[in-house]
Each structure stands twice: as C-alpha cells, then as structure tokens.
Amino acid sequence: MSREVVLEYRNTGGFDIIGSGRTKLEEEAQFDKVIENCQKLGIKALVVIGGDDSNTNACVLAEYFAQKKSGIQVIGVPKTIDGDLKNEVVETSFGFDTACKTYSELIGNIQRDANSAKKYYHFIRLMGRSASHICLECALETQPNVTIISEEVEQKGMTLDDLVTEIADVVMKRAENGYNFGTVLIPEGVVEFVPAMKKLIASLNDILAKYEAEVAVLETNRDRRDFVSTKLDEESAEVFTSLPNAFANQLMLDRDPHGNVQVSMIETEKLLIDMVKAKLKKRKKAGEFNGKFSGQSHFFGYEGRCATPSNFDADYCFTLGYTASLLISEGKTGYMASVKNLTAPADQWIPGGAPITMMMNMERRHGEMKPVIQKALVDLKGRPFLKLVENREDWAMNTRYLYPGPIQYFGPASVSDITTFTLQLEQAK
Amino acid sequence: MSREVVLEYRNTGGFDIIGSGRTKLEEEAQFDKVIENCQKLGIKALVVIGGDDSNTNACVLAEYFAQKKSGIQVIGVPKTIDGDLKNEVVETSFGFDTACKTYSELIGNIQRDANSAKKYYHFIRLMGRSASHICLECALETQPNVTIISEEVEQKGMTLDDLVTEIADVVMKRAENGYNFGTVLIPEGVVEFVPAMKKLIASLNDILAKYEAEVAVLETNRDRRDFVSTKLDEESAEVFTSLPNAFANQLMLDRDPHGNVQVSMIETEKLLIDMVKAKLKKRKKAGEFNGKFSGQSHFFGYEGRCATPSNFDADYCFTLGYTASLLISEGKTGYMASVKNLTAPADQWIPGGAPITMMMNMERRHGEMKPVIQKALVDLKGRPFLKLVENREDWAMNTRYLYPGPIQYFGPASVSDITTFTLQLEQAK
Q1: Which residue, A207, A267, A335, B67, is most buried by CB atoms nearer than 10 A?
Q2: Which tens digit of pLDDT belongs to each residue from B204-239?
Q3: Any idea of the CA torsion for B87, B90, B95, B101, to the nearest 10 degrees?
Q4: CB distance A302–B109 less than 8 Å?
Q5: Across the interface, do A113 and B411 touch by the CB < 8 Å criterion?
Q6: Which residues of B are catalytic?
C-alpha cells in the first residue's frame, strides 16, 4: 500500500479499500489458518477493526497467537455505528458520529416536510441493533415528537399495546392543539425489548432451527405460520397469531449466521402505524378523538453506515490508526487503541491503549460461559437519556423540531467539527 | 411579515413558514372565495408556487380575476423536485437540484456500503412521479450499475419481465466478473410506463371508483383482489393475478384526490427484487448462473423534498422571489417568473417573466379537453439521457461508483455552487 493508494481513500467512508466481513473466528482450525496466512504474507501484526464481537475475537486471537508463540501481534480498533462499544477505555466507537448526523439530516428533512404539509405522522425506524444509542442521539439532534428507547421499554416491561397507547395519546393531544402531523423515532431492535415479543422471538429462533427441514418444504407463508403456531407455547402462540400476517412473516425470515432474527428486516414502523391507526379508529368511534391520522413509514440503515465521515470521525480514525501502529511498534498485543478527551479540540486528544481483557465479562453463549466484551446499552440514569426525559412532554405537545442539515466539512468549527450530543453530555463537567 | 421573521427562514428548506396545500381550484365558487379572501385581507397579488398543476391553476385564476375586474394579480413560480416543469421559459424548477443532491448523497453512501460488504444488490426507488428526471440526474451523479428510465421503458414497450431480464442479465455478468453486489435505480412511476401495467392501473382506477361502496365493505385483501379480478378484462386480469399478493394489494390502495394511484405507495423495488430472485433461481437450476443474489430495498422520497437547499437553489429561489415581486410591481398578471442562464455564476443570471398561456397545451382531463401546462418528460434524444446510454455498459459491468457526499455550503465553489449534470449537459454549447 503506497502513500498514493492510501491518499485516494483518506477521509472517505466505508471499507471499499480493504473490504469487510462478518465471519466469526471461533475454532482453533480457523486461528491456525490465520497464523498460516500471516506467515505466508509476512504479516507481523493484525489490526482488527470492529465492534464488541470483532474485538472479543481480537482478544481471543491475541491469546492464542501468544500461546502458540507465533510472534503475531493483534490490536483492536473500536468501530461500530451502533455506539454500543463504550467503556472506561473507549469513549465512543468511530462511525457513530457520522451515522447519527446522516440520519439526523434525513429526520430533519422529514420534519420540515411534516411541518410544511401538516398532514402526516412519519414513523422512522433507525438502525442500531440492540442498543438505542443512535435513536437517542438523533432525538437530541432533531427533537421529534415521540422517541422510543428500547432499554426503557424493557425496564418498564412494556407491551406492544403500551407502546401503541403512548403514541396514540400523543397523536390525540396534538390533534387537540390543531396538529395532525408529527414524527416518531423507533430503534430497530425494539421488538426484542418488549418482554412478550422477546420470548416469542427466542422461541421462534429455536423452532426454526429445530424444524428447519420441515419448514423449508412448506410452500406458503400461511402454511409456515400455521406450522410454527402449533410448536409455540400458549402465551407466545397467542401473541404470534394476534400479529398482522405480514409482520408475523417477517419474524420467520432467515436468521443471521448466529441464529438470531435479523431485526433490520422487521418493519416495526409499519406494524406500529397499523396498530396506532386501529386504536385511534376505536377512539374516534367512542367520540374521544376528532383529529386525523395518516402514517408514513421510513427505515434508515445502510444510508448512514458508509457515509462520507464527519470531520470528527475522520480525525478520530486517523488518530486511532496512528495509535494502533504505535502500539504495534511498542510490541503490544491484545490491546485496544484508545483516544480520550474527545470533546476537546483534536490537538488535546490523549492517545493510548489498554488490554482488551480489561473489558471482558463472562456471558452465556450457546449454553456455555464465555468471556466477551459487554455491549453498552443506553444508561437510563445517564445524562443523554435524562435530557430526553426532561424535554419529552414539551417536544411531544409542541413542534420543537431541529433541522441539522447535511454534514459540513468547511466553514465555522462550531458547525463542522463538533461531535455528538451524547458524548458532550456524558463528558460535561 | 417583518424582516426579522423572514430572516429566520431564509435559505432553509420546506414551506413551514407559509404551509403547503394540494387542493385543486377548479370551480368558480372556489375562485370567488379566493377573491373574497384576498379583498378581506387587502391582498393585491397572489404568488402561486408549484408545479405544472399549480401553475395551470395560477393561469386560470389570473384570467378569471381579470375577467371579473377584481384587480388581483397572479404570478407563478416554478417549484417541483420532480424537474418536470421545464420549457423555453423555465430552465429548471427549484428544489430539483437539492432533492437530486440529497438522494445522490444517500445512493453514494449505499454504494460505498455495497462495495465494502460486497454481498448485496440494493434496489433504490426514487420519488419523481411520472418523469424520470430525478432518476437520470442521480444516475449521472453516482454511476450505479443499472438505471431504469420510465420514458425508455414506454418507448420500447417493455414488459415487467423485460425489465427483470435486463437486471438479471447484469447480475449474471457481474457474477462472472466476481461481483455479487450492485445498485439499481428505479423511478417511482415506472409501473405506469409498462404498457400492460398502465392499462391494468387505468382499469383499477375506474373499477375502484365505480364499485367504491362494494369494495369498501370487503374485509380482507384477498376478498378485494377476488372481487376486482372479476371486473377486469381478460388480459388485465391475467396480469393482476400473476402479481405477488402484497404488490396487487398496493395497486388497490386509496387513490389520490384526482383518482390516480399513489405511485409512492407501490413498492416496485420489492417486486423487482422478488422477480429477479425467481428468475436467477431458474437460471441457477439450468446451470446458467453460479453467483449469489441478495437484495435490499430502499425508497427515497420525503427525505429529499424539504432538505436544506443547496446554494444553487437558495440563490435561485431568492432571485425567483425577487423577480416575482418585480413582475407584480410592473402590473403583470398570469405571468411566470423566469430566471435564465442558470449554469453561469449567479451574477450573470437573467431574470424575466412570460405569460403562462405560452406554456399551455390542450389535454384530455376527465373526458374534457382542457388547457394545461405540459409535463416535461425525459427527452430520449437529449444529452443527459444520451450520456447515460453511452456509459451504461461500462457502469453495469464494472464498479464505477461515485460518492458525491452531503451538500456543502462553504468551501470551494466547484464543490458548493455547481448545479445539476442535467442542466449543465442541456446547456452545454
């Protein structure tokens, strides 16, 4: 890789120079293959760029390489737009800033449209798998009328109907103020945080794995739904059969390589629109609701994953990469590159590194206890979430939309160089 | 409206200061109501901001007001992201530049992701109703692997299967080169340009209007499909029943106020993914295809409609607004504000105006001949389309993606101030 090649890709998004993979390294045969390939290519150090899973892998690889005296070092770098790789060593993962700003640009545009046409409720689902960091950050950047935070849904033990009621109540109260439009932010993983749905999905994962052959030969979705229903326990079967067919079908779609449901394929935003509509129809009949409700659904995922990086992310990545190379030249292995003091200007950032083992916890995976990096969920006592709670009523009843516009590279630093509200609030003195 | 109020909204997108409506003014009672309201409020001139329909309205209103000697002037301003209000007087409508740049930012991001993960085909449907100007401009800005242009589909009399074959062929050839990923741009109105679908949709419009009461009482989509099928002629019934249920249901959704199908609600991108998948499965069985095909669907509409405007659109709108006010002070009515020489720097732009009647044609509407402004479709002999044709094979077989990134307001003029490829190519000497 010459300087000329690298320069073409510098400060651009994505991984189109080196590619990207999702294969999990779990078996010794795979580890040995890595050693073999590295030795063949004369590679003395590997830099693993990824989230909690990839860096857990990096740690395991480093230990194995050391034990085998292969001489190959492994350094981890925190990358995930989801923002859930965060701990004492890692203030934020790169990509989170850019993804949130890109989604917030789009949410802002939609809010401007909502406030111009004044006739639609836009239900916007945002990528981010389990944790709701993206949803929370985008809410702070755009001030929508309703923001669902999965971690809160789980803590309160909310049902789907509770969620629908919460949204329908906002629609009703806004209608009383003359507003028949609004925006609702939905984290893509929320269905897995509704206890009854979580249980249903876990059962479906097991059933679809156990009866793979039987299900594969069924021709229609209806046949598959009927078959699966008979294998569920009574409670889950009741939930499953109460869902609209299209949504139930999505819950049965192909699992990911780890046997989990692919939350990005589940159109929760459409389900919620249908359920809110049905609830408001009932309330209208009962004379409790006199407004109008018309929903539009959106899902933002891939649009924000490989966006041209914000100045913050470009600076952060450059510093992380440089730090990783220093850790290698210092002979470290099993370390994660770390850059701290990130809300200060870049020349005051503090590069460093720490053993990945420091971040490991024992968790049950496939029935076995394994050391893994714990996913950081939204802290319901943290300042970013409390900021949302503090403003929730005001943002719901009024129209306090912010329109952040597109990421800027030039112009005043207050526009182009600041990072997320999340990080600023977390680090506020 | 004080200067202070206006300043807060200057150079921002959308219509949240004045709101936006879609009500068509067609009856004299409505015209009289406008006069009454204007007189009550002391309004001496109306500025109508909109596309072909709104400006047709502006023209009719102006004539009526003059005939009634109301003394109220009417001036039109060309606004539509669709880019289909374009003629000798109007070089482009405002909003087209911003919308295309916003969509192209997102398409570029998705292409970067496609080229990083190297495992998905992204089918991206773009707003723009009938005309494919947005799709064509975005293709020129991002160089995707496949671009469908509705006007070409109609000219060639293509069937859905022809479209699917075209895409499947590209997927096959790319797989032979080792590429199992790509991007496909789809104009939202394309189904209305496939002759058999156009006929089906026209029949459905009539049937759903004629049997409104009968259809309204049917409980399920299946019942509605069965009922509608019996009313279609043989050819359309065959097309209708061959469609996947979900798609057939979308074709039966509520019509817009003009009785037309709402193309934004029809998920053509999902239909095409399913059909391409089915075709490739057959080819795989026949040993003709050895690659992989996995589709991801996207629809971009509202995200680009009220975006923060590009410098070009902000300058253009300001000039149009100022020009409209000059036309009013000159006593004109029934004129459209016009600004020419738009690919030159803004200080060389040429403001002016022309009677809207100059743009009118007689067209059949609801069985009657009426004067309307003709929608400008993509010119299949024009330079923008020919540029696409010239590069089509190369962009399909190779990976020539461009990643335009977000709209910039600061920095070099070559980044922040240039307008669309469409306009540049149309005006190239």
Answers
A1: A335
A2: 988 988 998 999 899 888 899 999 999 999 999 999
A3: 70
A4: yes
A5: no
A6: 82
Give the pLDDT confidence score for residue B18 in this predicted structure: 83
In this complex, the residue of A19, A122, A303 whose CB is nearest that of residue B109 is: A303
Among the options A82, A97, A313, A315, which is catalytic?
A82
A403 and B109 within 8 Å at the Cβ level: the answer is: no
Give every strand in the sheet of A73-78, ordered side by side: A45-50, A73-78, A335-340, A350-355
Which pLDDT score is estimated for B26? 84
Contacts of B126 in chain A (CB under 8 A): none
Q: How much is the pLDDT for B10?
A: 86
Phi and psi at B340, nearest 5°, equal: -115, 175
- What pLDDT score does A28 carry? 93
Cross-chain residue pair A302–B298, CB shorter than 8 Å = yes
Query: Which two tokens mark A308?
Result: 């041209």
- The 10 Å Cβ neighbour count of residue A267 is 17
pLDDT band at A31 (very low <50, low <70, confident <90, very high): very high
Of residues A33, A36, A65, A82, the one with CA closest to residue A304: A82
Q: Please state the separation of Cα A24 from the chain's center in Å.
A: 19
Catalytic (active site) residue A82: yes
Which residues does B contribute to its contact with A (CB < 8 Å)?
A: 12-16, 19-20, 102, 105-106, 108-110, 112-113, 115-118, 122, 246, 296, 298, 302-308, 403, 405-411, 416
Nearest to B20 among A109, A116, A304 (CB): A116
Distance (Å) from the C-alpha of residue A57 to the closest C-alpha of chain B?
Answer: 19
Paired residues of B48 in beta bridges: B76
DSSP secondary structure string for all residues of B341-387 = -TTS-GGG-EEEEEEGGGGEEEEEETTEEEEEEPP----TTSHHHHH
Lowest mean pLDDT among A321-330, A359-368, B408-417: A359-368
- Rounded-to-integer distance, Cα A77 and Cα A55, Å: 8
Dihedral angle sign, alpha carbons of residues A91, A154, A180, A304: positive
Q: Residue A122 is nearest to which of B112, B302, B411, comparing CB atoms? A: B302
Contact (CB<8Å) A15/B307: no
Prediction ipTM score: 0.93
Of the candidates A305, A403, A409, which has its C-beta nearest B308's C-beta? A403
Average pLDDT of chain A is 94
Question: Which residues lie closer than 8 Å to B351 by C-beta, 6 or more apart?
Answer: B319, B322, B323, B326, B337, B338, B339, B340
Distance of CA A20 to the CA centre of its chain: 18
At residue A257, does pLDDT exceed 80?
A: no
pLDDT exceeds cutoff 80 at A1:
no
pLDDT in tens, A384-418: 999 999 999 999 999 999 999 999 999 899 889 99
| Low-confidence residues of chain B: pLDDT under 70 | 258, 366
CB-CB neighbors (< 8 A) of A405 in chain B: 307-308, 407
pLDDT of residue B129: 83
Which domains are assigned to chain A? 3-95+308-373 (3.40.50.450), 190-265 (1.10.10.480)
Asked if B303 and A407 come within 8 Å (Cβ–Cβ), the reply is: no
pLDDT at A24: 81
Please give the pLDDT value at position B100.
Answer: 98
Q: What count of CB pairs under 8 Å joins A to B?
A: 122
Give pLDDT tens digits for B347-388.
999 999 999 999 999 887 767 788 899 999 999 999 999 999
Q: Which amino acid is at A372?
A: V
